[in-house]
Structure formats: C-alpha cells, structure tokens
Amino acid sequence: MKVQILKTHNRYFDKVVDGSKKFEFRFNDRDYQVGDPLILLDYTPDPTGNGNGLLTGDMFLTTVTYMLSAEHEQFAKVLNDNVILSLSDGVFIDRNQYKTVYCQVYENNFYLRLIASLAKSAVVYKENCINNRANHNGSTNKPNLLIAINNETGEWALLSFKEEPCIENEKMWEKFWCARITQVHHTYYNAEAYKGDMIAAALDK
Amino acid sequence: MKVQILKSEKDHFEQVAEGSKRFEFRVNDRDYQINDILVLMCVHKGKAEPFFNGDLFVTSVDSVLSADEVNYADTLKGNVILSLSDGVFVDGKNYQRFYYQEYSDRLFMRLVSTFTTTAHVYEKGLILRRDEVATPDGKPAKTNLLLAVNKATGEWAILSISPAETSYDSDKRFNSQVVAVVAVNKRLSSAKPVIVDDETEEMKEPNDA
C-alpha cells in the first residue's frame, strides 16, 4: 500500500469529481496496486505550454479498487506500460474550505483510535503538507485538514485539526505538530482488507 | 444513445458486478458514446461451466476516453475506456426471456411509475431467450424481463413483465403486462435534453426546435 499523489488535468479532474469518470488511465511508473489511496490534485497546465502550470488547490481523495495492466495477457500489447485504475467513491476537497492539507500514515491501531475519536491528538509531520493556502485571503479562519491513512488496510479518513506545538519535545517543534482533532469528516472503509487474518491479527494486539 | 450488448469474461464480469471495476476497456469498433446502455453478458471460456449462463449486468456509459483526446492518440490507438454508472446485476436463473424496447419520455415515466401497466414489446426486441434452461428446482423460470429505455434521456429501467405470448400480432409485437419494476437507473447527470415530438417521433436537438 502506497499513497499516490497525482496531478490531474482540470478537464478530467472535474469528471472524476462529478462521478462520470470512475477510472484513471496512467503511465505505470509507480507500481500501482489495488488498495492504494489516491490523492488527485486539480491541475491547470500553463496556457503557453512553457511554464509549470497551476495547482488550484482542489483535491479528490479516492482508492484503487481494481487495476488492469499488461499483466493481463490479452491486454499486454494494447496497454504496454500503461494501467487503468478503477476508483472507489471518493471525497472532494474544496480549495476554499481549508488552510492547509496534510497527509500522514498511521498504524492500524492508532488509525482506528483516531477515527473513533478515542485519540484526540496525533503527530503530523510538517514535511507531509500537501498544500498550504495560508497566504490566500480568508484562509486563516479555515480548518487544517488531515488525510489520515491506515498503513495496513489502506483505509483513509479526512479530519480537521488544530495545530499545537509538542510540549514534550521542544526541540522537535519545527518538525511536527501535535494535531488536536476537531472533526472527522469522512472515512473510507475497505471491506476487502478485513478478509482473512486481518481481524484476528488486530485482536491479538 | 444505443444499446450495446457485449460479452464479458467471467473474471472481469464479476469484478464489474461487485462494483470494484468501474470501467470497460474495449476495441472501439462500435462508436461508443456517453449514455449508451451496456448489457454485459457473462461468458465462461472453460469447459467446466456453460459458455453463457445468462447472467447480465446492465449499466450506462458515463464518459468515454478515446484516442480522440489530446495526449492519448498513441496510447489508446483504436481502443476506448468507458466509465460505468451504477448498474444492475440480473441473475441468469431468474428469467426466461429478456427484451429491450425504447419508449418516449412520457410513456417511460408512466411505465416506471406503474400508472401504465401495459406496454407494447416488439419481437425484434428479444435479446436473449432461456426458455430451455431449468432453475435449480427443476421448473423453468417464469419471469420475462424488459429493459425499457427512455428515448429522450437515456434513462432505463428493468421491468418484470407477464409470461411471453406464444405469438406476436401482425405488427410483430405483443402486449406485456408490467408486473413489477425491478430497477431504475438514476437520472443521468450528463443527459442532454432532447425534445421528442410524440406525434412524429422524430428526435430534435434543442437548438433546432
């Protein structure tokens, strides 16, 4: 399981958000797997074709539920090094509704405690910031968002949090926040992940 | 808007039916368009099971990615990727015949709201017949299914209709009694309104009207 952060051209991004496009057709340079969480970033290319283009700040959070690649023999010749990823239902993150977005991976036990709100705070490394809109007008009043990922199941949740420095580790302040969770917006449950030994393993701990 | 009847290998069919595969990757030999209705027929290549067991999955095309798109001319070359809407699984054991028929917007609405319980079905609309196949309890399935399509919007519904008439009338059609509405697909978000004149039954784009 790996979190894949992908730029997505504006004209396709909109279709993914409104649900009319439930797949991604991509060059397979990242070893995509079923169960990978995807963070799609809305991207507008530079009109002149020379610049770097623009990330609008809109995002879409989803998961790979199925993958078609050259490993399926009958498609080897037509797909070459490309893959088609099927997308689960996802969540749209509006650029006007947040100040910052972080993505942090947690262990199964801690992830479950987070979304059950048993754990009120979580460590969020500042280097895991995907987008910071602190310089945009009006964004200071908006929440910080945390995309929490379960490292065993690939499940994810979208949370709001307040930034607080870590008191116990003063020297580490500059590296991470002790995020105080204020709201759980959305969780993605992956039934597939719980087939087999998963539940037994969780109970053993 | 067309109805496309496609064979789908069992492995892929099951992934589509359970909802984890939400696309079809196909050779573009049929001019697929948004809102086309797909009837996927589950086929099995091994000898242990029958080649065709009657299982169907009915869905709509929400969007099409083809070599016409900028940047995809080389990679997609003659192939398309179709994005599938939420669909309906039809168990092959539970029907005898499967019909397809287009109706005007008005009649379609009446049919799915069951104000109208009788509808004309034409002989040429018979897509599949499984008269000879017995259900596990040894009796042939009695139900006939009708895929009713709204000509104006591309919406569709699967209706359970009365047992087949043994003969069609001179217009090669029979009157079917609607017994139940099995499933209705959601209103298509991208459906373009097409104005249908009920008297002439000619399709007009809104701009021409």
Characterize the structure shown:
Chain A is mainly β and 205 residues long. Chain A is 13% helix and 42% strand. In chain A, strands 1, 2, 3, 4, 5 and 6 form a 6-stranded mixed sheet that branches. Chain A has a 6-stranded mixed sheet with strand order 8-12-11-10-7-9. Chain B is built from 3 helices and 14 strands. Chain B is globular, with a radius of gyration of 18 Å. The two termini of chain B are 19 Å apart. Mean pLDDT of chain B is 80; it is low at 188-206.
What characteristics describe this protein?
heterodimer, A: 205 residues, mainly beta, 6-stranded mixed β-sheet, 4 helices, B: 209 residues, globular
**Helix/strand class of chain B:** mainly beta
Average pLDDT across residues of chain B? 80
How many DSSP E strands of chain B?
A: 14
**What is the CA-based Rg of chain A, rounded?**
18 Å
Q: Oligomeric status of the shown chains? A: heterodimer
Helix content of chain A: 10-25%
Report the portion of residues of chain A in β strands. 35-45%
Q: What percent of the residues of chain B sit in helical stretches (DSSP H or I)?
A: 10-25%
Whole-angstrom Rg of chain B: 18 Å
